[in-house]
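Posted in: Structural Biology > Protein-Ligand Complexes

Title: Requesting predicted complex, zinc ion in pocket

I'd be grateful if someone could produce the 3D structure tokens for the following input. Sequence and ligand are given below.
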Amino acid sequence: MTTTAFITHRECWLHDMGSFHPECADRLAAINDRLIAAGLDLYLSFYDAPQATPEQIARAHPESYLEELKASVPEHGIRHLDPDTAMNPDTLKAALRSAGAGVLATDLVLKGEIENAFCAVRPPGHHAERSKAMGFCFLNNIAIAARHALEAHGLERVAIVDFDVHHGNGTEDIFRDDPRVLMASIFQHPFYPYSGADCTSSHMVNVPVPAGTRGDTFRQIVSDMWVPALRDHNPQMIFISAGFDGHYEDDMGSLGLVESDYVWATQQIKAVAEDCGHRNIVSILEGGYALSSLARSVVAHIKALADL
Ligand SMILES: [Zn+2]
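-- Reply #1 --
Done. Output follows.
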């Protein structure tokens, strides 16, 4: 059986962007409840996320940006950085734990202590650009983890796959000029953040899909476009920007994916890793706002990671 790590931190629950904001701590509570109800907790290794260090963050964001974020933390109440992205006094702590989770996951996998990991963290990261917080994101967790694999562990090629309903504009911004990183993504288009469809970079496999797209088309795209590009790139590690807001029940987007689609995609990604001679996979939570379908999808995804 695979050893799969589940990495989180209690401080990720403290970040709050105001009443009724869909990106809320109840998301992590729903995942925890479902994990325990499914009996999955018996099969996973649990780790507390450390805080990412300024050096680790600087691999994806300029130092001045981290200083700006620090200066934006309100003493009390909520401060908006854009209409849907806001900080409370605990936001930076939560963001540092979220980024640190991906770094720890990368270390554990590359030291062989675990085979793969899921990071149940918030705030999410894939909309955070080099110098810009947006779309509920502050630090780009997946980018910081991928750069950690490249810079601290000396890997030469990694891949990021992103099946969140939204385009990961932040991840693209950070890796646009870094051909060591292949990014493969599927996202609803036209839709927030209205980017990605016109990308010409050879190491970005962007597949915009219209509202209403369901699992059969999603699977065809993964098979026809993602898998061959991933095999060609031959990554030494694969990172997953795991957003579950493309689920049929999630009103944040208008795609028609269901749990079995996420399981299937996870199995395809695992098969690509094995074709490349390893099992190194780190998955980090991005979106997913309908609590029931989010929790069911995360559990199904983790079961696939853990071969359960
Ligand atoms: Zn999303």
